[in-house]
Design goal:
Helix content: 40-55%
Shape: globular
Number of domains: 1
Radius of gyration: 12 Å
Strand order of the largest sheet: 2-3-4
Oligomer: single chain
Strand content: 15-25%
C-alpha cells in the first residue's frame, strides 16, 4: 500500500498533517502526532501494515499489540478518506 499522490504529508512543530490536493475527493485536514508521521513516511515509500508495525516497534517503546492496533486504526481512517492506494 502507498500514500495516494493526491495527499501530501506536512510536518510542522511536531504535528503531522495530511493535506489533500485539489484532485482529492476528501476536503479537509488530518492531524496526527509523530507516530502518524512515521506511518506516513512508510506509506510514501510503499509498504505493508506489518512492516509499519515493525518500524514503529523498532523506533518506539510500547506493547507490540497496542502498536499493531493503533496502526490498524490509522490505516483504516486513511483508507476511509482515500489517502491510501492498495
Amino acid at each position: 500500500m502507498r500514500l495516494n499522490p493526491n495527499f501530501i504529508k506536512h510536518t510542522m512543530d511536531g504535528v503531522t498533517l495530511v493535506v489533500p490536493t485539489a484532485d482529492a475527493e476528501f476536503h479537509g485536514l488530518v492531524q496526527g502526532n509523530k507516530t502518524v508521521g512515521v506511518i506516513l513516511d512508510c506509506l510514501e515509500n510503499g509498504t505493508t501494515q506489518e512492516d509499519i508495525v515493525k518500524t514503529l516497534c523498532d523506533r518506539f517503546d510500547g506493547d507490540p499489540s497496542e502498536i499493531e492496533a493503533d496502526v490498524a486504526d490509522v490505516i483504516f481512517r486513511l483508507k476511509e478518506i482515500g489517502a491510501i492506494d492498495e
